[in-house]
From TrEMBL:
GO terms for cellular component: cytosol. Pfam families: Thymidylate_kin. It catalyses: dTMP + ATP = dTDP + ADP. This is Thymidylate kinase. SUPFAM superfamilies: P-loop containing nucleoside triphosphate hydrolases (SSF52540). It is an enzyme of class 2 (transferase). Residues 7-189 form the Thymidylate kinase-like domain. The keyword Transferase applies. Signal peptide: none annotated. Keywords: ATP-binding, Kinase, Nucleotide biosynthesis, Nucleotide-binding, Transferase. Phosphorylation of dTMP to form dTDP in both de novo and salvage pathways of dTTP synthesis. One of its GO terms (biological process) is dUDP biosynthetic process. Belongs to the thymidylate kinase family.
Amino acid sequence: MGRLIVIEGLDGAGKRTLARGITAELTARGCTVSSAAFPRYSEDVHAELVAEALRGEHGDLGSSVHGMAVLYALDRRAAADALRAHLAAHDVVLLDRYVASNAAYGAARLHQHADGEFVSWVRDLEITRFDLPRPDLQVLLRVPAEVAADRAEHRERTEADRDRDRFESDASLQQRCAEVYAELAEAGFWSPWVVVDGATDVDFGVLVDKHVLG
């Protein structure tokens, strides 16, 4: 059975770059790696509805914290069997965002902390009720919110398919989300965590040796 590794962090933190670096390091060592990113906008109807709601479609759906969180959760539930199959077939399954994203962004939208009602509700829904595969490690790629925002804005200008959504463009929300992420990591939400400084160069060899391969 492979190891499930999740990369979490703000939009613009550099999660795709980190995923590519970890994948390259693992592949060089002869490990097989499968990768996925949530939401799966091009693969799942729930994720499609999320994208549409973030563009202002479907009435007031985008304003409903719990409604949007259910759609994010259903996207992952629909992927659960495939994740288990990939874990059975690969040494590492690497995910860009997972359950903690739902917990962090929803709590931030409600001005709650990691020990609040919303995070508990997400745990009950996605972990207990949906029984999603548990990560072996969650990696928080931590950068200052303003740095992440600058990177996301640059990406939006230079990549045709990378428009920021209403959450990603909300600076105060991103700051609160960063705080909740830090609290989740400190509390060890659902699995072990490691915090990586996304403002400096990452030593992928050390990260893989000490944490990813356990």
